[in-house]
Amino acid sequence: MTLHEFLYWFILPVLAVSALLVFVRFFLGPSIADRVVAFDLLIVVGIGIIAIYSIITEQPTFLDIAMIFALIAFLGTTAMSYYLRKSQHKGRHKDKVLPKLKKRNSHDRD
Amino acid sequence: MTVIEIVIAALAAFGAILTLLAGVGIVRMPDVYLRISVTTKAASLGVGVLLICAAMYFDEPSVTTKVLAIILFILLTAPVGAHLIGRVAYIMGVPLWKKSVMDDLKGQYKGRSKELQSDEADGGDAIHAED
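^ inputs. structure came back:
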């Protein structure tokens, strides 16, 4: 068994299964913070898959895409947290999107 | 397989298992804060090891530099992003796990503006009550 076959038949399926599990959390996630975390982790798993694919296809150019993905992951997390903080500041987001979470809120902060 | 290929295969297996652990952790953990903790640690190390595999396979200075840049960027930004989204989740009122034993930030975010305040003005005894 060569290295390429090992990567193709063992490593890539494991990474695909982990990407599927992250997708499960992305769809289930009760709050929007869960979805942001799942999206971030999805991009990170995608960087790993790109690294393995660059070995299989012997194209180191794919690692450029991995670098762009790393940039976009941090940018997305930062932008989403900034947006959520702003909308929370105005007090609109809490009533529209999270009524269920607000009801069983265990740590009241007022 | 040569020796270097065996090393690459072992490192790739290690990284893939760590990434799978992150995937299992984000599904099984009961709380958004615990999920952030699991994914940040496991995914950073796992993807870092997978990228090191690529650097060892190609063995060129340009690829190695690129890989080191990606790893450095992931290691720099993963804690910052996790802190940002965890803080916003707390301010939004995402509930903690019901078996959490302590909440250090309880009562620290006051009012609608959600400014972080200390207890020194009104309740300084709350901090020093234990000693």
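Chain A has five helices and no strands. Chain A has one domain: 10-97.
thumbs up if we can close this ticket
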